[in-house]
Amino acid sequence: MQRRRILPSTFFSRGTLAVARALIGVHLVHDDGRQRRAGRIVETEAYLGPRDLAAHSARGRTARTEVMFGPPGHAYVYFIYGFWNCLNVVTGRAGVPHAVLLRALEPLDGLRERTWGPGLLCRALGIDRQLNGADLRGGVLWLEPPPPGAPRARIARATRVGVDYAGDWARRPWRFYDRDSPYVSTASSRARPREAAAAAGAVKSV
Length: 206
Description:
By secondary structure, the chain is an alpha+beta fold. It has one domain: Methylpurine-DNA glycosylase (MPG) (3-methyladenine DNA Glycosylase, Chain A, Roll). Helices cover 13% and strands 27% of the residues. It has helices at 9-12, 16-22, 118-125, 194-200; strands spanning 27-31, 36-48, 75-80, 84-91, 98-109, 141-144, 155-158, 175-178. Strands 1, 2, 3, 4, 5, 6, 7 and 8 form an 8-stranded antiparallel sheet that branches. The radius of gyration is 16 Å and the shape is globular.
């Protein structure tokens, strides 16, 4: 059996903006025992609560946000609009509710659905609230460094998506993305590979 290459715990305990940027190009893997699915992360957003009014933790420590206050390197999975799950990586130090939202993946293994948007990403990988609090260095859901020799991504920054309600915080350039990837959620649909567009169907990106 091939030995897994997982990110060290120190990767997650750094500053949240540094982690959000460093996650571009990292591989996200979900193995539920029946199927192994994997993709290359191409878009992230940093959330630095509780001061950041765009962060869930700005509303305080609740049952929903408890995982964000825990140790770094764990999954914070939340449910929105009665339909979509979204995956975040808890970062920084325990007690400080910081996290990085994973917004888009480039398919690598076992992915046949759209992956450009946080809700679509989770649906394609079979990630739901059962994985909330999962150790991202465990055996079910984990993060792998890019393989040796992989080209370094050209990373761009922009404001976060859908957080206009957060006032000045909405203008922070805390979204990071691979500027060359057609799988970024805000990329033109014309730029995406034909097979990806064909798999999209009529489901709107979330």
